[in-house]
Design brief:
Layout (H helix, E strand, L loop, with lengths): L1 E3 L5 H13 L8 E6 L5 E5 L7 H8 L4 H20 L2 E2 L8 E3 L5 E3 L6 E2 H4 L19
Magnesium ion (MG) binds next to loops.
Length: 139
């Protein structure tokens, strides 16, 4: 179990929590609920991802085998396809926001910038992590 304590405003945190709670897929980090901390803050309870971020995993295990590369890429693609089927746009996918569990399964996390399709349409400006943004995000 891991607890994410938000740095961002309460409203954004509620949105992140609601989105996470509505999603259940093998390649999306499982949200197990919320918790009230002694500090008065709320935390999101997540399944613990023992092998850390994709970035850490690649650094620790390089060179990755072909099987590992294919399995990680497929996992991320399946997670994203599921999100898009649910009409949720993550908007900040990067090697820091993909976590690896103890079995080596990749799961997408950090829905702090995510939005449902209805709220994305008409949004202006750019969002994401610079090196990971798609070309169409640049005007
Ligand atoms: N379920 C989890 N299990 C293990 N580690 C986690 C888990 N969730 C988050 N972490 C660790 O905490 C870091 C930050 O989490 P997350 O990406 O959800 O928050 P963030 O809002 O982006 O915060 P930051 O700006 O610090 O990256 C991750 O990169 C990872 O190292
Ligand atoms: Mg993050």
């Amino acid at each position: 179990m891991a607890v994410k304590i938000p740095k961002i405003g309460l409203e954004d945190f509620q949105k992140e929590k609601d989105i996470l709670l509505s999603l259940r897929h093998r390649n999306i980090v499982l949200c197990q609920g919320e918790v009230n901390l002694h500090s008065g803050q709320q935390g999101i309870v997540l399944e613990h991802m023992a092998q850390g971020t994709l970035k850490d995993f690649i650094e620790k295990n390089q060179p990755l085998s072909e099987e590992q590369k294919i399995s990680l890429s497929l996992g991320i693609a399946k997670g994203l396809a599921f999100l898009h089927g649910e009409k949720i746009f993550h908007r900040d996918l990067s090697h820091n926001n993909v976590l690896i569990d103890d079995t080596g399964t990749a799961k997408i996390t950090d829905f702090g910038k995510a939005k449902p399709l209805s709220n994305v349409l008409g949004t202006s400006g750019t969002i994401g992590t610079y090196l990971w943004m798609p070309p169409e995000a640049f005007s």
